[in-house]
């Protein structure tokens, strides 16, 4: 019985270590609730994200028509970097201090990624005193 309890304890401890989030766990492709597909990648120690597909976003809008900079309103959304400067916080096991551009309204939000699960990540976006938690689906 003691051997069974010890084995069970070791399995639980090893399993908890194997699920601890690491900085590069965020790298991958995701579908956002607004039907943008984004690829998150690492660049110079920070994490960025660019649009890789539109998947029916805003009734087929393909250009950055709501950009506050009028000279960029004819820019394609495909390839546009919309997530910048995410940093991994080892103590909190979160990605913090990021900025995300929302092409639907042409606004920039603060971005934090709090949890990674097998098929999704949990994201918190904020602007001024308002914040919203969303789930992004991981793509294969």
Descriptive overview:
This protein has one helix and eight strands. By secondary structure, it is mainly β. The protein has a single domain, classed as Lipocalin (Beta Barrel), CATH 2.40.128. Strands 1-2-3-4-5-6-7-8 form an eight-stranded antiparallel beta barrel. The longest helix has 17 residues, at 2-18.
Task: List its salient traits.
12% helix, Lipocalin, 140 residues, mainly beta, 8-stranded antiparallel beta barrel, single chain
Relative strand content: over 45%
The overall number of domains is: 1
By CATH, the architecture is named Beta Barrel
Unreliable stretches covering 5 or more consecutive residues:
12-19
User: In terms of structural class, how would the helical and strand content be classed?
Assistant: mainly beta
Distance between the termini: 43 Å
User: Going across the major beta sheet, what is the strand order?
Assistant: 1-2-3-4-5-6-7-8
Blueprint (SSEs and pairs):
Elements (H helix, E strand, L loop, with lengths): L1 H17 L9 E4 L5 E7 L2 E8 L27 E9 L4 E9 L4 E10 L3 E8 L2 E10 L1
Antiparallel strand pairs: 1-2, 1-8, 2-3, 3-4, 4-5, 5-6, 6-7, 7-8
Give a short synopsis of this structure:
Helices cover 12% and strands 46% of the residues. By secondary structure, it is mainly beta.
